[in-house]
Design goal:
Keywords: Aminotransferase, Pyridoxal phosphate, Transferase. This protein has about 375 residues and is of the alpha/beta class. It is built from 14 helices and twelve strands.
Length: about 375
Protein backbone atom coordinates (compact mmCIF):
# COMPACT_ATOMS: atom_id res chain seq x y z
CA UNK A 1 0.00 0.00 0.00
CA UNK A 2 1.27 3.43 -0.85
CA UNK A 3 2.41 5.58 2.06
CA UNK A 4 0.97 8.64 0.40
CA UNK A 5 -1.85 10.01 2.51
CA UNK A 6 -2.49 13.24 0.65
CA UNK A 7 -5.90 14.49 -0.44
CA UNK A 8 -7.26 13.78 -3.91
CA UNK A 9 -6.58 17.16 -5.48
CA UNK A 10 -3.13 17.38 -3.89
CA UNK A 11 -2.23 14.02 -5.43
CA UNK A 12 -3.63 15.15 -8.79
CA UNK A 13 -1.64 18.37 -8.66
CA UNK A 14 1.66 17.31 -7.12
CA UNK A 15 2.46 13.61 -6.86
CA UNK A 16 4.81 12.47 -9.59
CA UNK A 17 6.01 15.89 -10.67
CA UNK A 18 9.38 15.81 -12.41
CA UNK A 19 11.40 18.43 -10.52
CA UNK A 20 13.02 21.06 -12.73
CA UNK A 21 16.35 21.15 -10.89
CA UNK A 22 18.03 23.34 -13.47
CA UNK A 23 15.62 26.25 -13.89
CA UNK A 24 13.18 25.68 -11.02
CA UNK A 25 10.15 25.94 -13.30
CA UNK A 26 6.74 25.35 -11.72
CA UNK A 27 5.78 22.40 -13.93
CA UNK A 28 7.49 19.19 -15.01
CA UNK A 29 9.96 19.54 -17.86
CA UNK A 30 9.48 17.15 -20.81
CA UNK A 31 12.31 14.71 -21.44
CA UNK A 32 12.05 13.67 -25.07
CA UNK A 33 15.32 11.71 -25.29
CA UNK A 34 14.97 8.23 -26.72
CA UNK A 35 18.59 7.57 -25.81
CA UNK A 36 20.15 7.80 -22.32
CA UNK A 37 23.53 7.25 -20.68
CA UNK A 38 24.11 3.58 -19.90
CA UNK A 39 27.41 3.61 -18.03
CA UNK A 40 27.44 4.36 -14.34
CA UNK A 41 23.66 4.75 -14.04
CA UNK A 42 21.14 3.12 -11.69
CA UNK A 43 18.48 2.79 -14.40
CA UNK A 44 19.03 2.15 -18.09
CA UNK A 45 16.32 4.33 -19.58
CA UNK A 46 14.56 3.76 -22.89
CA UNK A 47 11.01 4.79 -23.96
CA UNK A 48 9.82 1.22 -24.61
CA UNK A 49 11.06 0.18 -21.18
CA UNK A 50 8.40 2.49 -19.69
CA UNK A 51 11.11 4.23 -17.64
CA UNK A 52 11.87 7.60 -19.20
CA UNK A 53 11.55 10.33 -16.55
CA UNK A 54 8.07 11.53 -17.56
CA UNK A 55 6.68 7.98 -17.73
CA UNK A 56 8.23 6.94 -14.45
CA UNK A 57 7.02 9.96 -12.51
CA UNK A 58 3.47 10.10 -13.89
CA UNK A 59 3.09 6.42 -13.00
CA UNK A 60 3.59 7.47 -9.35
CA UNK A 61 0.59 9.80 -9.59
CA UNK A 62 -1.59 7.00 -10.97
CA UNK A 63 -0.38 4.57 -8.28
CA UNK A 64 -1.12 7.13 -5.54
CA UNK A 65 -4.63 7.73 -6.92
CA UNK A 66 -5.40 4.01 -6.96
CA UNK A 67 -3.76 3.29 -3.57
CA UNK A 68 -1.38 0.94 -5.38
CA UNK A 69 2.38 0.43 -4.94
CA UNK A 70 3.18 0.87 -8.62
CA UNK A 71 1.70 1.69 -12.00
CA UNK A 72 2.54 1.73 -15.70
CA UNK A 73 1.33 4.02 -18.47
CA UNK A 74 0.48 2.66 -21.93
CA UNK A 75 -0.23 3.96 -25.41
CA UNK A 76 -3.95 3.12 -25.08
CA UNK A 77 -6.39 1.42 -22.75
CA UNK A 78 -6.26 -1.64 -25.00
CA UNK A 79 -2.43 -1.74 -24.76
CA UNK A 80 -2.82 -1.72 -20.97
CA UNK A 81 -5.41 -4.46 -20.85
CA UNK A 82 -3.87 -6.72 -23.49
CA UNK A 83 -0.44 -6.50 -21.83
CA UNK A 84 -1.96 -7.22 -18.42
CA UNK A 85 -3.86 -10.26 -19.71
CA UNK A 86 -0.83 -11.67 -21.52
CA UNK A 87 1.33 -11.16 -18.42
CA UNK A 88 -0.88 -13.45 -16.33
CA UNK A 89 -2.35 -15.88 -18.87
CA UNK A 90 -0.46 -18.44 -20.90
CA UNK A 91 -1.35 -21.46 -23.04
CA UNK A 92 -3.76 -23.72 -21.16
CA UNK A 93 -4.86 -21.05 -18.68
CA UNK A 94 -8.44 -19.87 -18.31
CA UNK A 95 -9.94 -16.39 -17.84
CA UNK A 96 -13.33 -15.70 -16.29
CA UNK A 97 -14.64 -12.42 -17.60
CA UNK A 98 -17.82 -10.41 -17.11
CA UNK A 99 -20.34 -10.71 -19.95
CA UNK A 100 -21.04 -6.95 -20.05
CA UNK A 101 -17.66 -5.62 -21.05
CA UNK A 102 -16.05 -2.90 -23.16
CA UNK A 103 -16.33 -4.02 -26.81
CA UNK A 104 -12.59 -3.74 -27.54
CA UNK A 105 -11.80 -6.06 -24.65
CA UNK A 106 -14.37 -8.58 -25.92
CA UNK A 107 -12.79 -8.44 -29.40
CA UNK A 108 -9.29 -8.90 -27.98
CA UNK A 109 -10.35 -11.99 -26.04
CA UNK A 110 -12.35 -13.57 -28.85
CA UNK A 111 -9.91 -12.81 -31.68
CA UNK A 112 -6.52 -13.25 -29.97
CA UNK A 113 -6.92 -15.78 -27.16
CA UNK A 114 -7.49 -18.78 -29.47
CA UNK A 115 -4.12 -18.03 -31.16
CA UNK A 116 -2.39 -18.33 -27.77
CA UNK A 117 -4.39 -21.34 -26.57
CA UNK A 118 -5.88 -19.34 -23.70
CA UNK A 119 -9.37 -20.40 -22.65
CA UNK A 120 -12.08 -18.03 -21.48
CA UNK A 121 -15.65 -17.96 -20.18
CA UNK A 122 -17.99 -15.00 -20.29
CA UNK A 123 -20.25 -15.04 -17.24
CA UNK A 124 -24.03 -15.33 -17.53
CA UNK A 125 -24.48 -12.25 -15.37
CA UNK A 126 -22.69 -9.81 -13.11
CA UNK A 127 -23.40 -11.40 -9.68
CA UNK A 128 -20.69 -13.18 -7.67
CA UNK A 129 -22.48 -16.52 -8.22
CA UNK A 130 -22.13 -16.03 -11.98
CA UNK A 131 -18.36 -15.66 -11.62
CA UNK A 132 -18.05 -18.59 -9.23
CA UNK A 133 -20.04 -20.81 -11.60
CA UNK A 134 -17.63 -20.02 -14.44
CA UNK A 135 -14.44 -20.95 -12.53
CA UNK A 136 -12.41 -23.95 -13.73
CA UNK A 137 -9.39 -25.70 -12.24
CA UNK A 138 -7.16 -23.81 -14.72
CA UNK A 139 -8.69 -20.34 -14.08
CA UNK A 140 -5.89 -17.83 -13.42
CA UNK A 141 -7.69 -14.50 -13.63
CA UNK A 142 -11.16 -13.00 -13.04
CA UNK A 143 -11.77 -9.72 -14.84
CA UNK A 144 -14.66 -7.38 -14.04
CA UNK A 145 -15.98 -4.02 -15.21
CA UNK A 146 -18.14 -1.92 -12.90
CA UNK A 147 -20.12 0.21 -13.51
CA UNK A 148 -20.47 -1.43 -16.90
CA UNK A 149 -21.05 -0.04 -20.36
CA UNK A 150 -23.75 0.93 -21.35
CA UNK A 151 -26.32 -0.29 -18.78
CA UNK A 152 -24.33 0.71 -15.68
CA UNK A 153 -24.67 -2.63 -13.92
CA UNK A 154 -22.73 -2.78 -10.65
CA UNK A 155 -20.62 -5.78 -9.62
CA UNK A 156 -19.66 -6.45 -5.98
CA UNK A 157 -15.92 -5.69 -6.06
CA UNK A 158 -15.14 -6.89 -2.55
CA UNK A 159 -17.02 -10.18 -3.05
CA UNK A 160 -15.15 -10.81 -6.32
CA UNK A 161 -11.81 -10.06 -4.63
CA UNK A 162 -12.69 -12.48 -1.81
CA UNK A 163 -13.75 -15.14 -4.30
CA UNK A 164 -10.41 -14.77 -6.08
CA UNK A 165 -8.45 -15.02 -2.82
CA UNK A 166 -10.44 -18.08 -1.69
CA UNK A 167 -9.79 -19.86 -5.00
CA UNK A 168 -6.20 -18.68 -5.51
CA UNK A 169 -7.19 -16.73 -8.63
CA UNK A 170 -6.02 -13.18 -9.40
CA UNK A 171 -8.61 -10.46 -9.93
CA UNK A 172 -8.54 -7.40 -12.18
CA UNK A 173 -10.94 -4.57 -12.88
CA UNK A 174 -11.51 -2.04 -15.64
CA UNK A 175 -12.01 1.09 -13.50
CA UNK A 176 -12.40 3.47 -16.44
CA UNK A 177 -16.05 4.43 -15.87
CA UNK A 178 -15.78 5.23 -12.16
CA UNK A 179 -12.20 6.56 -12.14
CA UNK A 180 -10.26 6.53 -8.85
CA UNK A 181 -12.13 9.69 -7.89
CA UNK A 182 -15.27 7.58 -7.34
CA UNK A 183 -13.94 4.07 -6.75
CA UNK A 184 -10.69 2.57 -5.41
CA UNK A 185 -10.83 -1.18 -6.12
CA UNK A 186 -7.42 -1.98 -4.57
CA UNK A 187 -8.84 -0.91 -1.18
CA UNK A 188 -11.53 -3.55 -1.71
CA UNK A 189 -8.94 -6.27 -2.35
CA UNK A 190 -8.70 -6.43 -6.17
CA UNK A 191 -5.20 -7.29 -7.42
CA UNK A 192 -4.97 -5.11 -10.53
CA UNK A 193 -6.73 -2.01 -11.81
CA UNK A 194 -6.64 -0.88 -15.44
CA UNK A 195 -7.79 2.32 -17.14
CA UNK A 196 -8.43 3.73 -20.51
CA UNK A 197 -6.67 7.04 -19.75
CA UNK A 198 -8.24 8.22 -23.01
CA UNK A 199 -11.32 8.82 -20.89
CA UNK A 200 -11.38 10.60 -17.49
CA UNK A 201 -7.59 10.73 -16.95
CA UNK A 202 -7.20 12.69 -20.19
CA UNK A 203 -10.63 14.26 -19.84
CA UNK A 204 -10.46 16.61 -22.83
CA UNK A 205 -11.04 14.13 -25.68
CA UNK A 206 -7.55 14.72 -27.08
CA UNK A 207 -5.30 11.99 -25.60
CA UNK A 208 -5.22 8.24 -26.24
CA UNK A 209 -3.53 6.41 -23.34
CA UNK A 210 -3.91 3.62 -20.81
CA UNK A 211 -2.67 2.60 -17.37
CA UNK A 212 -2.42 -0.33 -14.98
CA UNK A 213 -1.91 -0.02 -11.20
CA UNK A 214 -1.06 -2.88 -8.85
CA UNK A 215 1.56 -4.24 -6.43
CA UNK A 216 5.18 -3.75 -7.45
CA UNK A 217 5.45 -7.52 -7.92
CA UNK A 218 2.58 -7.66 -10.42
CA UNK A 219 3.73 -4.51 -12.21
CA UNK A 220 7.18 -6.09 -12.69
CA UNK A 221 5.51 -9.06 -14.34
CA UNK A 222 3.45 -6.78 -16.58
CA UNK A 223 6.60 -4.78 -17.39
CA UNK A 224 8.37 -7.93 -18.54
CA UNK A 225 5.66 -8.54 -21.15
CA UNK A 226 5.14 -4.84 -21.89
CA UNK A 227 8.74 -4.32 -23.00
CA UNK A 228 8.22 -7.10 -25.58
CA UNK A 229 4.83 -5.92 -26.81
CA UNK A 230 5.98 -2.30 -27.01
CA UNK A 231 2.83 -0.46 -25.98
CA UNK A 232 4.46 2.55 -24.31
CA UNK A 233 3.19 6.13 -24.66
CA UNK A 234 5.32 8.93 -26.11
CA UNK A 235 6.76 11.34 -23.54
CA UNK A 236 5.05 14.27 -25.20
CA UNK A 237 1.69 12.66 -24.55
CA UNK A 238 2.75 11.54 -21.07
CA UNK A 239 3.39 15.19 -20.29
CA UNK A 240 -0.01 16.17 -21.73
CA UNK A 241 -1.60 13.47 -19.58
CA UNK A 242 0.15 14.79 -16.48
CA UNK A 243 -1.22 18.25 -17.19
CA UNK A 244 -4.71 16.87 -17.71
CA UNK A 245 -4.64 14.81 -14.55
CA UNK A 246 -4.04 17.84 -12.35
CA UNK A 247 -7.76 18.61 -12.75
CA UNK A 248 -8.99 15.00 -12.63
CA UNK A 249 -10.53 15.41 -9.17
CA UNK A 250 -12.17 18.74 -9.98
CA UNK A 251 -13.54 17.56 -13.32
CA UNK A 252 -14.87 14.19 -12.25
CA UNK A 253 -16.47 15.53 -9.07
CA UNK A 254 -18.29 18.21 -11.05
CA UNK A 255 -19.30 15.73 -13.77
CA UNK A 256 -20.53 13.28 -11.13
CA UNK A 257 -22.61 15.99 -9.44
CA UNK A 258 -24.12 16.95 -12.80
CA UNK A 259 -24.88 13.32 -13.67
CA UNK A 260 -26.77 12.71 -10.43
CA UNK A 261 -28.90 15.83 -10.99
CA UNK A 262 -29.59 14.92 -14.61
CA UNK A 263 -30.36 11.28 -13.82
CA UNK A 264 -32.97 12.36 -11.25
CA UNK A 265 -34.43 14.89 -13.66
CA UNK A 266 -34.58 12.47 -16.60
CA UNK A 267 -36.13 9.84 -14.33
CA UNK A 268 -39.15 12.12 -13.84
CA UNK A 269 -39.22 13.43 -17.41
CA UNK A 270 -42.52 12.58 -19.18
CA UNK A 271 -40.73 11.82 -22.47
CA UNK A 272 -38.18 9.47 -20.88
CA UNK A 273 -39.22 5.88 -20.21
CA UNK A 274 -36.14 4.55 -18.39
CA UNK A 275 -32.91 5.79 -16.78
CA UNK A 276 -29.90 3.63 -15.91
CA UNK A 277 -27.72 5.22 -13.22
CA UNK A 278 -26.31 3.59 -10.07
CA UNK A 279 -27.06 6.74 -8.06
CA UNK A 280 -30.84 6.36 -8.47
CA UNK A 281 -32.59 4.58 -5.60
CA UNK A 282 -34.50 2.61 -8.24
CA UNK A 283 -31.23 1.08 -9.59
CA UNK A 284 -31.18 -2.61 -8.54
CA UNK A 285 -27.66 -2.25 -7.08
CA UNK A 286 -28.07 1.21 -5.55
CA UNK A 287 -27.03 0.05 -2.06
CA UNK A 288 -24.03 -1.86 -3.36
CA UNK A 289 -22.95 1.11 -5.48
CA UNK A 290 -23.29 3.38 -2.44
CA UNK A 291 -21.15 1.05 -0.37
CA UNK A 292 -18.26 0.68 -2.85
CA UNK A 293 -18.25 4.05 -4.63
CA UNK A 294 -17.68 7.52 -3.17
CA UNK A 295 -19.67 9.01 -6.08
CA UNK A 296 -21.81 7.30 -8.68
CA UNK A 297 -19.85 8.47 -11.70
CA UNK A 298 -20.77 10.63 -14.66
CA UNK A 299 -22.04 8.01 -17.11
CA UNK A 300 -25.74 7.27 -17.45
CA UNK A 301 -28.06 5.79 -20.05
CA UNK A 302 -31.69 6.47 -20.82
CA UNK A 303 -34.50 5.62 -23.21
CA UNK A 304 -36.96 8.04 -24.77
CA UNK A 305 -40.59 6.93 -24.84
CA UNK A 306 -41.77 4.99 -27.89
CA UNK A 307 -42.47 7.20 -30.85
CA UNK A 308 -39.59 9.59 -30.18
CA UNK A 309 -36.71 8.65 -32.46
CA UNK A 310 -33.43 8.46 -30.56
CA UNK A 311 -31.26 9.28 -33.61
CA UNK A 312 -33.37 12.23 -34.63
CA UNK A 313 -33.23 13.42 -31.01
CA UNK A 314 -29.42 13.40 -31.07
CA UNK A 315 -29.40 15.28 -34.37
CA UNK A 316 -31.53 18.04 -32.82
CA UNK A 317 -29.16 18.65 -29.89
CA UNK A 318 -27.24 21.94 -30.07
CA UNK A 319 -24.86 21.71 -27.12
CA UNK A 320 -24.49 17.99 -26.43
CA UNK A 321 -22.46 16.28 -29.13
CA UNK A 322 -23.21 12.87 -30.58
CA UNK A 323 -19.70 11.61 -30.30
CA UNK A 324 -18.17 8.12 -30.07
CA UNK A 325 -15.98 8.36 -27.00
CA UNK A 326 -16.72 9.50 -23.45
CA UNK A 327 -15.54 11.22 -20.30
CA UNK A 328 -14.50 14.57 -21.75
CA UNK A 329 -15.39 17.87 -20.11
CA UNK A 330 -18.00 18.26 -22.87
CA UNK A 331 -21.21 16.22 -22.69
CA UNK A 332 -21.67 13.58 -25.39
CA UNK A 333 -24.31 11.03 -26.32
CA UNK A 334 -24.30 7.89 -28.45
CA UNK A 335 -26.65 5.08 -29.43
CA UNK A 336 -24.90 1.86 -28.33
CA UNK A 337 -26.77 -0.22 -30.96
CA UNK A 338 -25.04 1.82 -33.69
CA UNK A 339 -21.60 2.05 -32.05
CA UNK A 340 -20.16 -0.09 -29.25
CA UNK A 341 -22.70 -2.89 -29.76
CA UNK A 342 -23.27 -2.62 -33.52
CA UNK A 343 -21.60 -5.98 -34.15
CA UNK A 344 -24.16 -7.85 -32.05
CA UNK A 345 -27.36 -9.14 -33.67
CA UNK A 346 -30.71 -7.65 -32.65
CA UNK A 347 -31.43 -10.82 -30.66
CA UNK A 348 -28.11 -10.60 -28.82
CA UNK A 349 -28.77 -6.95 -27.99
CA UNK A 350 -32.29 -7.77 -26.82
CA UNK A 351 -30.85 -10.49 -24.59
CA UNK A 352 -28.60 -8.01 -22.74
CA UNK A 353 -31.21 -5.25 -22.74
CA UNK A 354 -29.72 -2.82 -25.25
CA UNK A 355 -32.69 -1.41 -27.15
CA UNK A 356 -32.58 0.84 -30.21
CA UNK A 357 -34.03 3.59 -28.01
CA UNK A 358 -31.10 3.43 -25.57
CA UNK A 359 -28.88 6.51 -25.41
CA UNK A 360 -25.61 6.59 -23.45
CA UNK A 361 -24.93 9.98 -21.91
CA UNK A 362 -21.40 11.00 -20.88
CA UNK A 363 -22.09 14.00 -18.67
CA UNK A 364 -19.62 16.89 -18.88
CA UNK A 365 -18.94 19.96 -16.77
CA UNK A 366 -21.42 22.29 -18.46
CA UNK A 367 -24.10 23.92 -16.31
CA UNK A 368 -26.97 21.53 -15.66
CA UNK A 369 -29.63 24.10 -16.63
CA UNK A 370 -28.09 24.41 -20.11
CA UNK A 371 -27.93 20.64 -20.55
CA UNK A 372 -31.57 20.30 -19.50
CA UNK A 373 -32.54 23.07 -21.88
CA UNK A 374 -30.70 21.38 -24.74
CA UNK A 375 -32.42 18.05 -24.09
CA UNK A 376 -35.85 19.68 -23.84
CA UNK A 377 -35.50 21.77 -27.01
CA UNK A 378 -34.40 18.64 -28.94
CA UNK A 379 -37.42 16.68 -27.66
CA UNK A 380 -39.72 19.59 -28.58
CA UNK A 381 -38.48 19.41 -32.18
CA UNK A 382 -39.50 15.73 -32.40
CA UNK A 383 -43.19 16.37 -31.85
C1 LIG B 1 -12.36 3.19 -24.06
C2 LIG B 1 -12.34 2.07 -23.12
C3 LIG B 1 -11.35 1.08 -23.17
C4 LIG B 1 -10.28 1.06 -24.23
O1 LIG B 1 -9.45 2.16 -24.16
P1 LIG B 1 -8.65 2.79 -25.42
O2 LIG B 1 -7.92 3.90 -24.79
O3 LIG B 1 -9.68 3.19 -26.42
O4 LIG B 1 -7.76 1.71 -25.95
C5 LIG B 1 -11.37 0.07 -22.22
N1 LIG B 1 -12.34 0.03 -21.27
C6 LIG B 1 -13.32 0.95 -21.20
C7 LIG B 1 -14.35 0.83 -20.14
C8 LIG B 1 -13.36 2.00 -22.11
O5 LIG B 1 -14.34 2.91 -22.04
Amino acid sequence: MSKINLGLNTICTHVGEVKDEQFKGAVSPIYLSSSYEYLDVDVKRYPRYFNTPNQEFLAQKIAALEHAESAMIFGSGMAAISTMFLAFLKQGDHLVVQNTLYGGTVNFIKEEFPKYGIEYTFTNGYKVEDFEAALQSNTKLIHIETPSNPLLTVTDIKAIAQLGKAKGVLTSIDNTFASPVNQKPMDLGVDMVMHSATKYFGGHSDICAGAVASSTEHIERIWNVGKNLGGSLSDMMVWMLERSMKTLGLRVKEQTKNALKLAKWLNKHPKVSKVYYPGLKTHPEYKLAKSQMTGFGAMLSFELIDGLDSQLFQQKLNLIKSSMSLAGVESTMISPHLTSHALLTQDERDAVGISNQLIRFSVGIENVKDLKHDINQAIEKLK
